[in-house]
Amino acid sequence: MEFTPINEIEKIHAELRSGFYSGKLKSIAYRKYQILQLGYLLQDNAQRIDEALTADLGRPSVENYFLEIGPCIGEAKKVYQSVDKWAKPEKPAFTFNFFAMRPVIRKEPKGVVLIISPFNYPLWLTIGPVLGALAAGNAVAIKPSENATAVSGLLTELIPKYLDRDLVRVVNGAIPETTRLLELQWDHILYTGSGRVGKIVSLAAAKHLTPITLELGGKSPVVVDPSCDLETAARRIMWGKIVNAGQTCVAPDYILVPKEFQDTLANALKDAYDKFFPETAKPSTNGTYSRLITPQAFNRVNKLLKGTQGTIVFGGEVDEATKYIQPTVVKDVQANDTLMSEEIFGPLLPIVPVKDIDEAIAFINARDHPLALYLFATDKGIKAKVFDNTQSGAAVANECVIHPAVEGLPFGGIGPSGSGCHTGKFTFDTFTHLRASMDSPSWVDMMLSARYPPYTVSDSSAL
After folding, report:
1. Which residues are catalytic?
2. Which one, out of 95, 244, 331, 401, has a CA that is 20 to 30 A from the CA of 289?
3. 0.85 cut: is pTM over it?
4. Contact present, 33 and 203 (Cβ < 8 Å)
């Protein structure tokens, strides 16, 4: 994959600005045409996309279709079907005082927007935002991850073939190219990635007063109550951790469980793992389980594993040459353990024993608000207690990871885990300016003549 020459980036920005001002996307029909073309890009090239995802992440084909290709095609269809409705002006609720002024909310594009997408879901976290931005009528610059070289290279090849290059462009590169992009003025920036880089993006955006949406991740906890359906809980938690080798921003990062239930849960997780990976399909076998994205990612996660003071229940096997780290569950992990020092973003699952649910809530609240909080329990009182007394981007009971794909739900964080949200109509809204508008006839002054000077005592009562 070739990086975009730095001296061409400002030119690309200017061409996108010209494309936006051409007015092409004022036409809802042309927006729908671009959305349809993006859908065809996905459909026509599904096999190549699958191969690229596997090349970058070692990910099994089933995961590629379930987590990215299928949801992207589905979202393209939904956006295509909905854009006419979403883009219609809205009338505010009727009020007697102002209805005659014909108030209306216009749905207008913000302009030229920048989407910076990550390596872990390089298709879904690129295509979804682009669909919403186009539906809202914006021109789009895409900065895909330099670590997902196969997918980024494929998108660079395909996008100009399917989409209007006056309106959508890809800029490839690493830190220098991204820095140059951030020096330019955009009308909105959507960034998905680490909190460290999120601060850099925020600072750059602030120089131009550019609005931003940040999806930053963090350590998403799983609270397990003894009232849970144990087999289901173990199966879903284990899947949430092993899918994409734990490189998921909403992956279960650690478990909080009453101490007396810890071993029971650990054994159930081991049973789930053994069913996922029988002797005939071990995770070390190519095509059964993802790999870490880069040698640097492997070394970071491996260092966390080596430094833990907890007890390994199962797993722990690594292979630096193939960037393989076996799914690993570690129990008796303390708050100051290496596994609790940062977002793991890998297939390690620490279990932190606590006294009770109250201590679990206090543990969560003493840390940054996570992107997701998971709870496994059947007791309605426990569900209400945990969700009502914590803060997180999402609060999910008895499920893991898949909530960002649920139609109608927003995907986003709070505080250090992000700001703003996207997916579906929420993406359209993110890239839309709600422009207040009125058209007030002259006869309204018959009712509001008291607003004009010279003021009299009777004017106050009239108004």
Report:
1. 215, 249
2. 331
3. yes
4. no
- Whether residues 205 and 227 share a domain: the answer is no
Cα distance between residue 212 and residue 419, in whole Å:
8
Considering the domain architecture, whether residues 211 and 260 belong to the same structural domain is answered as no
Residues 163 and 200 in one domain: yes
- Domain with 106, as residue range(s), is 6-216+417-437
CA distances for 188 relative to 200, 204, 214, 344, 432, angstroms: 15, 12, 11, 29, 10
Question: Is there a domain that residue 452 lies in?
Answer: no
* Domain membership flag for residue 453: no
Contact 269, 303 (CB under 8 A): no
Joined together, the tokens standing for residue 274 give 């053994």
Write out pLDDT tens, residues 203-213. 999 999 999 99
Checking DSSP bridges between strand 372-376 and strand 221-224, what pairing results, if any?
Answer: parallel
Q: Are residues 347 and 205 in the same domain?
A: no
Specify the pLDDT at position 99: 86
In a shared domain, residues 211 and 314: no
pLDDT in the model for residue 22: 97
- 3-state DSSP of 92-152: CCCCCCCHHHCCEEEEEECCEEEEECCCCCCCHHHHHHHHHHHHCCCEEEEECCCCCHHHH
Q: What is the pLDDT of residue 103?
A: 92
Q: Is 338 found in the same domain as 239?
A: yes
